[in-house]
Amino acid sequence: MTKKLIFLPVLLSFGAAAQATDLPKPVYRASSEPVNLVEPLDYVQVCDAYGEGFFYIPGTQTCLRLSGRVRTDALYRRFADKPQNWGGVVDDSPQGRDLNSMRFRARSYIRMDARSDTEFGFVRAFSELRATVDSDSERYGESPIMDLNKAYIQFGGFTIGRTGSLFDFFTGATFGSVHRDWSDANSWSAAYTEVFDDGVSVTVSVEDPVYRAHGVFTGVEGENGRAGNKAPDAVAAFRMDGDWGSAKLSAAATHIRPEAAYVPGEVGWAVGAGAIINLPQLGSQDAMALQFQYGNGAVSYAGIDDDEVFDAYYIGGDTRKTEALSFSGGFTHYVTPDVRTDFDASYAVVDTPTGAPLPDFNRVSLDWDLVWSPVTGLEMGVDFGYVRTSPEETKDFDEGSALFRVQKTF
């Protein structure tokens, strides 16, 4: 029996070989043209009409630039010791031992910039996606944080979408480890810009107030703050650009709509002026910036973003507005082509109405960094910041920070 099992595979293999000899042999014909086994490709073509990095989207006349940034940093913070329930607002944010003195962060940006010349003129679409993971978001269960930082379309002088406020001008030179008091907000806007000769331009815009409104303080729990908006903010700006630098004048108006229906609304307004001046006598990339911003019932336009500060206070049956004023500036100096230092400073004064629970206060913010760029797009450096807040009839409180950052822009 065992011998039969051993010879059985041998017999089967001979049978299979015999069958194979009976099959017809394939006929090979010579071909005059080689067989093309690869689909034709539309090779990407460089588009140099809008600067470096653009290429034509295959099959279109649209030029696209893909870019981005990866940023990592470690921040040490000494938190401000604010008075309890400062300004009459209960602070329900993390306190004491719940706070992270060390914050580690990783953040990425992906930018897409599409441009084309059409029968209607120049058309541009831009978007910037941002993703952040850090110690705070991980601890409080909010990680990762994904947001659409910017997304807008430009054509025929119009800019529509989410972009930086057209009121803003200088928004910092340093890494920014502490808050500095100047207007710096992204919002939905619909703007029109008319460009004249000699670098002069005028812009008018309507913008979503939800990113700026601080509302009205009534002193009644659940009735402090802002109601839903009924009208956009209005912004106008005049700007000049030249080899010497740039300058800007801007103004804004906003509707103060209280959360409580019995509280009368008000109109807030703001103005700003600033200049960025190139300093070629110090270095080819050196520059300094100076600006002034004032808000009357529109404190965000002066860079005041504290939750305890309201645009207005309901006192004695009247809605009384808060005034805010800020002076700020910055300076950049290249020590060598690969090493630069930046310095930012701001001084803000907040004047609340008589009878408001929040006292008048002023604030000084200082921030300095030293940055090394060994190769194009790569930066690493340190940043140190200090802030002192000085309320009337209350002791001062301060905060400090130290930041180490590495980032690559591509």
Automatic annotation (TrEMBL):
The record's note on its domains: Consists of 16-stranded beta-barrel sheets, with large surface-exposed loops, that form a transmembrane pore at the center of each barrel. The pore is partially ocluded by a peptide loop that folds into the pore lumen.
Membrane-topology descriptor: Multi-pass membrane protein
Signal peptide coordinates: 1-20
Transmembrane segments: none
UniProt subcellular location: Cell outer membrane
Alphabetic keyword roster: Cell outer membrane, Ion transport, Membrane, Porin, Signal, Transmembrane, Transmembrane beta strand, Transport
Organism superkingdom: Bacteria
Organism the protein comes from: Pseudovibrio japonicus
UniProt family annotation: Belongs to the alphaproteobacteria porin family.
Function comment: Forms passive diffusion pores that allow small molecular weight hydrophilic materials across the outer membrane.
One protein family per Pfam: Porin_2
Name listed for the protein in its UniProt record: Porin
Cited InterPro entries: Porin_alphabac (IPR003684)
Biological classification of the source: Bacteria, Pseudomonadati, Pseudomonadota, Alphaproteobacteria, Hyphomicrobiales
